Amino acid sequence: MDVAIIGTGYVGLTTGVCLALLGHEVRCHDVDPGRMDKLARGRPPIYEPGMEQAMRAAARKRSLHFVSELADAVRGAKAVFLSVGTPSLPDGDIDLSYLEAAARQIAPLLAPFTTVVVKSTVTVGSCRRLEQIIRDVRGAGDFAVAANPEFLREGSAIDDFMHPDRIIIGSDDERATTTLKELYGPLVARTDAPVLVTSAENAEMVKHAANAFLAMKIGFINEVADLCERAGADVTTVAKGIGLDQRIGPAFLQAGPGFGGSCFPKDARAFAATGRRNGVPQSLVETLIEGNDRRKTALARRIAFKANLRKGAVVAVLGVAFKAATDDVRESPALAFIPALQDQGFVVRAFDPQAMPTAAKELPDVNWCSDAYEAATGADAVVILTDWKNFTELDLGRLSERMKGSTLFDFRNILQPEAVAACGMTYFGVGRAGLPGDKRQYVEKRAVAAAN
Ligand SMILES: NC(=O)c1ccc[n+]([C@@H]2O[C@H](COP(=O)([O-])OP(=O)(O)OC[C@H]3O[C@@H](n4cnc5c(N)ncnc54)[C@H](O)[C@@H]3O)[C@@H](O)[C@H]2O)c1
Ligand SMILES: O=c1ccn([C@@H]2O[C@H](COP(=O)(O)OP(=O)(O)O[C@H]3O[C@H](CO)[C@@H](O)[C@H](O)[C@H]3O)[C@@H](O)[C@H]2O)c(=O)[nH]1
């Protein structure tokens, strides 16, 4: 099928590449000329594992094209995907203006009959609004707007797109639903993914409610972690025990420094704003947002207390991306955590395998380092903030030798406390093994290790 993709960020690019690999003829367009230039040279403008290879594979099939002129992208397309950003407004609601602008721009260019597919995450009622904008330009009858929310995660975008848990098609126009079923046909044939055909409103609501629910699982386990820490339990085991209940499941129960990224914080705010706008406050989600925001700075104060850091102390932060396997720092815990360290008068040295160029624009006065060991050099404390696999493989002895102090905060619970203690460091995880008891425990273990 002939497909156009408008907006080639994480979602648009992944959608375009994957649809091309599934056998469709795809033309991608973006307003950002720098992005288009990179794409035309076969270079992904974002760090996403497997993307460059997937782009090469699609290019070999001659089914993926990057087109600078919007009209050339849209002309003749049977489905036009809108995958532009939907950022937060100051009141938490989404800013629909990028989608509205894109709808206005494509409206005169659509061939009859075209399905305009809203891939961006939108609040309930947005597709109707976009439909009205296009209708104002070209009248009714030869197009339909369908909601088709995307559930991929950054860092595993291609795999998630190619192996969806479900495909949601939101439209009451039969021509649109037929087009989308045909489009996803090859994917459904390969994966047997369930397809839910429903109204646009239901589809829009599914996306926001799903993200709010997943974010609530994380917010919940983070509060449980804090309780574990005080009450002498270990959240990693507690989460395992909870997750073994099939009704709960093990996913999204990793305690950490709070959820970040371009989706959960923004989408939780939008869901809460939708509740307020409709006179049905979503109090659980409101509380979740507040707690998650507070957590990021509270952890910065907590380390000062636990490691007894004074003004001028040096803190090494390992990881600034909002999660592993991405260069994205949007609403990353690091963007709140590092300034909160600096506010206390600490000097911050930091390293991230991919996200330093993007983070440097947001975080002034950080000493960026070429690896974890350089970051740890002369540090009073080291903090692991992102769950990069490289950090699970650190040479802890080497890290410890480089440090001035001896405290390691593992805010992703990715290290073995015993291994850290064996290298002469005091270990603090998130909600692990009960504090201050575990501090004594690991200090004691360290003493034993040293004696041996
Ligand atoms: N990032 C994710 O993991 C993810 C997953 C699912 C859904 N979403 C949703 O998908 C949408 C896009 O997210 P993203 O992370 O890909 O955003 P992004 O910021 O990475 O990309 C958006 C792109 O749209 C382009 N753009 C803006 N206006 C345009 C226009 N009028 N014409 C052409 N291009 C235009 C921008 O230049 C940018 O390259 C958002 O609504 C987001 O909530 C994101
Ligand atoms: O157990 C967990 C799982 C995640 N996180 C954090 O939560 C945030 C989001 O992580 P993740 O969901 O893996 O990344 P995203 O790429 O933001 O993907 C989410 O947001 C996308 C945009 O809407 C959706 O498409 C995905 O389904 C949804 O998982 C990150 O800060 C993670 O570190 C935790 O702290 N603990």
Biggest sheet record: 6 strands, parallel
Say what the CATH topology of the largest domain is: Rossmann fold
**Total strands:** 14
Distance between the termini: 69 Å
Radius of gyration, taken over Cα atoms and rounded to an integer in Å: 24 Å
Tell me, rounded to a whole number, the average pLDDT. 94
Protein architecture, described:
By secondary structure, the chain is α/β, with parallel strands linked by helices. The protein has 2 domains: 2-198, 3-Layer(aba) Sandwich (Rossmann fold), CATH 3.40.50.720; 199-452, NAD(P)-binding Rossmann-like Domain (Rossmann fold, 3-Layer(aba) Sandwich). It has helices at residues 10-21, 33-40, 51-60, 70-74, 97-106, 126-138, 157-162, 174-191, 200-231, 235-243, 264-277, 283-306, 333-343, 356-362, 372-376, 389-392, 396-402, 417-422, 437-451, and strands at residues 2-6, 25-29, 64-66, 79-82, 114-118, 143-147, 167-170, 195-198, 314-318, 347-351, 367-368, 381-384, 407-410, 426-428. A 6-stranded parallel beta sheet has the order 3-2-1-4-5-6, with helices on both faces. A 6-stranded parallel beta sheet has the order 11-10-9-12-13-14. Helix 5 (97-106) runs parallel beside helix 6 (126-138) and helix 9 (200-231) runs parallel beside helix 12 (283-306). It is globular. The N and C termini lie far apart (69 Å). Residues 434-445 have low confidence and may be disordered. The site of nicotinamide-adenine-dinucleotide has 27 residues, from helix 1 and helix 5.
